[in-house]
Amino acid sequence: MSVDTQHRTDHLDSVEAALADLSAGEKAWAALSLTDRADLLDRVRALTGKHGAEWVAAASSYKRLGPHSALAGEEWISGPYAFASGLGAAAQSLRDLAVGRSPVADATFGTAAGHTTVRVLPSSRYDSLLLSGFSADVWLRPGVDPSQARAAAGLAQLDPAATGGIGVVLGAGNITSIAPLDVIYELLAHNRVVALKLNPITDSLLPVLEQVLEPLISVGAIRILTGGAEVGEYLVQHDAVAHVHMTGSAATHDAIVWGTGPDAARRKASGEPRLTKPITSELGGVSPTIVVPGAWSAADLRFQAEHIATQRLHNGGYNCVAAQVVILPGDWDQKQDFLDALRDAFRSAPARVPYYPGSDDRVAAAHDAYPDAERLGSDGERLLITGLSLDGDEKLLGTECFSPVLGVLELPGNGAEFLTAATDAANNRFVGTLGINVIAHPDSIADLGDDFEKMIADLRSGTVAVNAWTGIGFLTAAATWGAFPGHTIDDIQSGTGVVHNAFLLADAERTVVRGPFRPAPRSILHREWSLSPKPPWFVTNRTAATTGRLLAEFAVDPRPMRLPAIFASALRG
Q: What is residue 439's DSSP assignment?
């Protein structure tokens, strides 16, 4: 027997053992009270703090970040911080349910464009301090009122003894909290025990995740597996598996559901998927950032250029919700000033190694398609592509580059005319519905009034962020994260279903995030009531590593005495 064959056999034996363990573990999970489950989540959160530095070191290693890089802040914030925040909010939801309270009993409800909304940020006094000026609301589907929302919140935890079998989570390779957060959502929202298959890129995280998730592993609720595509294929097709959830590309989703080659095309045409069990997914897409014209100062231009550079270059550009195309008002009298600032920000952002497989090939393919693209960065590894058009088949609007490539699409008009054109383009010409960013001066928002709010309502996106990056929706524990509802397995785009959603809301349609147009102290000087300085997730933040670590420690153990150090570090960023 060859070494490769032996490895494959060993991996498949591990799958069988894991599924057998989970079959027994499902019974143990069903027997746990809601309070017991909350206690388990608290133990996992404490272990996240204990092993946070190991988590970040492992992530930084495979992403080839230097030992003193400020970019390690990305790993703290999108790894231990995001996971600990989600665990804390989910544990509180379980404790509310345990005493007969809805997780949203005390939530602030509102209305927007005929939707009931639920405020999920801020959800505590600490949120109001640490994310001053930021807010997030989950919009429920039309027709759902607050009383219905309160009654339905809890999802499968409303009947905790009724378990849903074994679910498979196929983990992501980019953001390290995605896989464990998806596991927690499977456990709670669907009451399924989980076989987590790591993306091979993240295999170095296995020892850390086994230590962090040990309380749930020990009760038989989780098993973690490694291996290549053949292991994933064997796992998702196994008769013992009831459901599959994946994060990745639409191409990977279609290979799982329909297969590959001519046989896949035949199956798709006849509506005969090779995967016959339910699957949910988060698959990315092409995310636009819409820039609304207004009267911006030089400082505004610089800050928002850094903001958009961050939206593209965070994590090296390997984010499912990275901004790929800026929709710019062609008639804006500050258009050229903004483009100059954007070019400078995109060029001067910290250099980093293209760690994600295939990145160089995707950049090369984009350059082949757009030979006039500007090569920026220390090694020319970034592409800025101007002159995009809605005429014909514009490749950059229909293909997710998943690499440091940014395009600019100019549309005519000012005011409401531009908003209408930008909304139509974002909804109908871009592939995917995961996230849309909108940047607008507060005076422009006030002047546009109902027209601006109509644009927000009309944008078909799982997360819409106004003067913020949609990534903040990902980091908000109680926000829903996923595509806009309506995709099907034969036209999957950004996927189906949601995750995170720590309040366990039913019937969610989207999350709308809002943030300050300016950082403090300029925000206060211009009567924006926000104390937030340059956010720690900006790629240009000098103290991101320290601030990210302090935020993660706070998420694990929130205490007032931790706040001064966070504020001091953030202000130096």
A: E
Q: What DSSP string runs through 52-108?
A: HHHHHHHHHHHTT--TT-TTHHHHHIIIIIHHHHHHHHHHHHHHHHHTT--TTTTPP
Ranges of the chain whose pLDDT falls below 70: 1-7
Classify residue 116 by its DSSP letter.
E
Is the peptide bond preceding residue 122 cis, with omega within 30 degrees of 0? yes
| CB 346, CB 312: distance < 8 Å | yes
Angle made by CA atoms 488, 322, 255, in degrees to the nearest 5:
35
Are the C-beta atoms of residues 383 and 374 closer than 8 Å to each other?
yes
The predicted pLDDT at position 347 comes to 96
Q: How far, CA to CA in Å, does 265 sit from each of 232, 253, 262, 380, 488?
A: 22, 14, 5, 38, 16
What pLDDT, on the 0 to 100 scale, is given for residue 465? 98
Q: Which two tokens stand for residue 548?
A: 């990210």
pLDDT at 12: 86
C-alpha 473/C-alpha 475 separation (Å) is: 5
List, in sequence order, every beta strand (DSSP E) within 398-550: 405-411, 435-439, 463-466, 480-482, 495-496, 498-500, 508-514
CB atoms within 10 A of CB 17: 12
Distance CA(34)–CA(97), nearest Å, equals 7
Bond into 516 cis (ω within 30): no
**Which has the closest alpha carbon to 282: 466, 150, 433?**
433
Total residue count of the chain as it appears in this document: 573
Adjacency order of strands within the sheet including 405-411:
109-112, 115-121, 135-140, 508-514, 463-466, 435-439, 287-291, 323-329, 405-411, 382-388, 374-376
CA nearest 116: which of 128, 124, 107, 125? 107
**pLDDT of 10:** 75
Residue 480 Cα distances to 114, 115, 429, 490, angstroms:
19, 15, 24, 23
Are 92 and 45 in contact by the 8 Å Cβ rule? The answer is: no
Pairing of strands 374-376, 435-439: unpaired
> Facing residues of 407 across strands?
325, 385
Alpha helical stretches, state H, 314-354:
335-348
Q: What is residue 320's DSSP assignment?
A: T
C-alpha–C-alpha distance, residues 369 and 392, integer Å: 14
Q: What is the DSSP string of 505-541?
A: -SSEEEEEEE--SS-TTHHHHTT------S-TTSTT-
Where do we find the tokens 């499912």? 320
Q: What pLDDT does residue 529 have?
A: 87
pTM for the structure as a whole: 0.97
Q: Which amino acid is at 247?
A: T
In the three-class reduction of DSSP (H, G, I as helix; E, B as strand; rest coil), residue 325 is classed as strand
